[in-house]
Amino acid sequence: MPRLLSPTLREGFIRWATRRQSTSNLSIDIDRKRIFILPSRNGLIFGLVLLVMLMGSIHYSNSLAFLMTFLLAGLFGIAMWHTHRNLLGLTISKAVPGPVFYGDTAQLPLLIQNHSGRPRIALTLQWQREELTIIDVEAESESTAILRITTRQRGWMKPGRFRLYTRFPLGLFQAWTWLEFDWSILVYPKPIDCQLPRHSTGTGNEKTANDVEGSEDFMGLRDYRHGDSLRHIAWKALAHNEQPLTKQFSAGFQQELWLDWNDIEASDPELRLSKLCHQVLQANANQLEYGLRLPGESIPPNHGEAHKSRCLKMLALYDV
User: Fold this and answer.
1) Of 66, 182, 292, 314, which residue is 20 to 30 A from 42 by alpha carbon distance?
2) Cα angle: 155, vertex 161, 167; to 5 degrees
3) What average pLDDT does range 50-69 have in this prediction?
4) What is the pLDDT of residue 253?
5) Smallest Cα–Cα separation from 84: which of 189, 167, 187?
6) d(CA 17, CA 199)
7) What is the distance between the alpha carbons of residues 218 and 216, in angstroms, rounded to a whole number?
């Protein structure tokens, strides 16, 4: 669509053009009613040159000039047909996007299916003014394209409408279609460095939150992590395993760490959420058992990836 229109007029035209196109839950078939096509900037220049050639041919009554003009005009029409056909009949299916942190680029996978016996060349995906994704799809096959979207808000973000277009084969025309799926991206707060609380509660003596492993009772073996003491490496087990293992001990008590909204020194609520987000990631990386408290809601202490995702989701959706 031409960039000569103001953003307001452009958005109004798009709403009018797509008024009969509903939001899809799974997939969209691109038929003739969905495709728009206009000459590109090069196409407009080419058309202007054809007009000048036609006027010169008429003025001089030159048969060869007429022949060249009509040949190029035929090429112009064939290019328009091929550009339109490059989009026609494709099926676009969505996948569930994964969560991202605020400020990061979300990558939304889209499955493009080509049911015809001809390849589709230089298909371009674009959301607003973000980075373009260009992909080719072979005949009777499918390919996965990644739509890149920069996150601009915490919580649930709805990407809304995006564009699929092509200028293949000669760049004289641009054919495009607007697509919109009913999907949402979960955006976590942006992690901001913040140390874990220097206390934990349990059934034994107080320890710092960094005291993850004790040295009293042998509990078993786990995969080696960078920074583990060499004294705890199971050297005998190394003879039977390609990867080193580390001995794990129990300190005789169960750690319990609370990440509390009221313990964060910050006046800005978003800054508090960002610091708590960093604490959740740090506690999970240290394999601590931790809970999360926010005003009016809390998650009891636990550990593991599922617990981390639950805590991050609560931070993402707090007061949204």
Assistant:
1) 66
2) 140
3) 92
4) 44
5) 167
6) 60
7) 7
Do the beta carbons of residue 151 and residue 100 sit within 8 Å? Answer: yes
Rg value, the chain, Cα: 30
Give which of 250, 252, 312 is closest to 276, Cα–Cα: 312
For the stretch 117-143, pLDDT in tens is: 999 999 999 888 777 889 999 999 999
- Contact status, residue 292 vs residue 197, Cβ threshold 8 Å: no
Q: What is the distance of C-alpha 269 from the center of its chain? A: 26
What is the rounded average pLDDT for all residues in the chain?
A: 83
57: which 2 tokens? Answer: 């041919």
DSSP per residue over the chain, as a string?
--TTS-HHHHHHHHHHHTTTPPPBSSEEE--GGG-EEEE-HHHHHHHHHHHHHHHHHHHHT-HHHHHHHHHHHHHHHHHHHHHHHTTTT-EEEE-PPPPEETTSEEEEEEEEEE-SSS-EEEEEEE-TTS--EEEEE-TTEEEEEEEEEE--SSEEE---EEEEEE-TTTSSEEEEEEEEB---EEEEPPP---PPPS--BSSSS---TT----SSEEEEEEE--TT--GGGB-HHHHTT-SS-EEEEEE-SS--BEEEEGGGS--SSHHHHHHHHHHHHHHHHHTT--EEEEETTEEEEEE-SHHHHHHHHHHHHHTT-
